[in-house]
Amino acid sequence: MAGFELASGGPLLSVRDLRVRFVTERGAVNAVNDVSFDLHEGETLAIVGESGSGKSVTAKTLMNLLPRTARVSGEVRFDGQDVRALASCGAKHFFGVQMTMVFQDPMTSLNPVKKVGEQIAEGLRYHLGRSRGEALSEAENLLADVGVPEPGRRVSQYPHELSGGLRQRVVIAMALSCRPRLLIADEPTTAVDVTVQRRLLDLLDGLRRDRGMAMILITHDLGVARGRADEVAVMYAGRIVETADAGTLFGDMRHPYTEALMRSIPRIDDPVHHRLDPIPGRPPELIDPPDACAFAPRCRYARHDCHDGVPELSGSVGMHRFACLHPTGAERGQAALAANRAAHSSSRDGDGGKDGSGNSGKPDRGEKPDGGSGKPDDGGSG
Ligand SMILES: Nc1ncnc2c1ncn2[C@@H]1O[C@H](COP(=O)(O)OP(=O)(O)OP(=O)(O)O)[C@@H](O)[C@H]1O
Ligand code: SF4
Ligand SMILES: [Mg+2]
In what order do the strands lie in the sheet with 99-102? Predict the structure, then answer.
């Protein structure tokens, strides 16, 4: 590794107050807002959220892969080093060596007219100075490590000769070739068949453990995070709305959006079959977002005060934090849910929806936020 030295101690990756805006003809897209998290050596952070929530933009910011239209502020430190400063002074042996990324579609990372062995060998030659022969031999070993059968034959094949699952394994081999300390896997299995997904996720998890590597696993599926992540950050409309260690998040989720995700998404590795409830409505526009909780129009717990500013993500980084005024599982949340149900059933003359909220997110200003029983009910947890 050339060009810089790494410090030691503290988290491997520390992100503080990250903001990303894209300048467009329609206005500024507020893609990432005030995102802060830590990731420790050898741990997995899952970033979970619906399409457009800012997961990939966050990852691309870390990897210095944003287009010129992006305006970035905030701090990113990798083992104490300022990553944004490294990016601007051209640390070519940092990105792709210490920190690498696997994209959703393997074909965006593979050159269709180059043999896969040569493509894996390229990084080893460029970053680590291996000879061509050494690099090709390492490429073959890497293909074996990622479970590609007959690696000696596969090194001489072109990407189109491989199945989608094998192509993604090749991309994983490329990302691992220089033994990164952090791998960012952005929806690494969405381009492959559902039966291949779990095997690839388990492979990634196993490789991470074997190599003591840290991983950011980006997914829209909370079920993928379960059992594979140490920490989970749930993103909505460019913000982290809830984050905790995985045990706390799955056992004691507090944000209504996390709960809604849990109820809405089929989980490929959950043996228990849950009834699926799609989240009503759509995520908000990120140009000119309202000064309110962005989830309010879709939230069955929403009360009038949810429109009085963006709720803060309270607590310290590394602890259970959530940005909600009426958290699920809390007395205040149950009261809001009950009041919304009562208001909905009286306004609809008993013809309520599944949850009775109406999901307008705008209860009458005169309604009391604590008008319910305060007791948990059947809709209270995912
Ligand atoms: N280059 C760009 N210019 C303008 N807006 C952009 C650009 N790239 C991303 N965005 C916007 O930023 C927001 C966040 O996008 P991002 O790709 O991070 O979403 P995501 O959470 O990864 O979604 P998905 O699950 O669909 O991959 C979206 O509204 C997207 O349209
Ligand atoms: S209860 Fe209010 S603050 Fe909490 S998620 Fe719903 S709308 Fe947002
Ligand atoms: Mg994405």
Answer: 99-102, 182-186, 214-219, 44-48, 231-236, 239-245, 321-322
What's the rounded mean pLDDT across residues 283-299?
Answer: 94
Please state, as a whole number, how many other Cβ atoms lie within 10 Å of the Cβ of residue 313: 19
Angstrom distance (rounded) from CA 367 to CA 382? 26
Cite the beta strand spans of 187-325 per DSSP E.
214-219, 231-236, 239-245, 321-322
Closest CA to 34 of 82, 70, 74: 74
Instruction: Fill in the DSSP letter of residue 161.
Output: G
Distance 303 CA to ligand 2 centre (A): 7
Ligand 3 centroid, distance to 357 Cα (angstroms): 30
Task: Output the pLDDT for position 7.
Answer: 55
Point out the ligand 2 atom lying closest to the alpha carbon of residue 300.
6
Token reading at 289: 């977002």
**Interval 228-237: pLDDT, tens:** 999 999 999 9
Choosing from 35, 50, 55 the residue with most ligand 1 atoms within 8 A of its CB, the one to mutate for a pocket test is 55
- For residue 236 and ligand 2, the question of a CB distance below 6 A is answered with no
Looking at residue 369, what is its pLDDT? 33
d(CA 125, CA 291): 51
Predicted confidence band of residue 182 (pLDDT cuts 50, 70, 90): very high
Residue 46 Cα to chain centre, angstroms: 5
Q: Is the pLDDT of residue 8 over 60?
A: no
Residues 44-87 pLDDT 10s: 999 999 999 999 999 999 999 999 999 999 999 999 999 988 88
The SS3 of residue 287 is strand
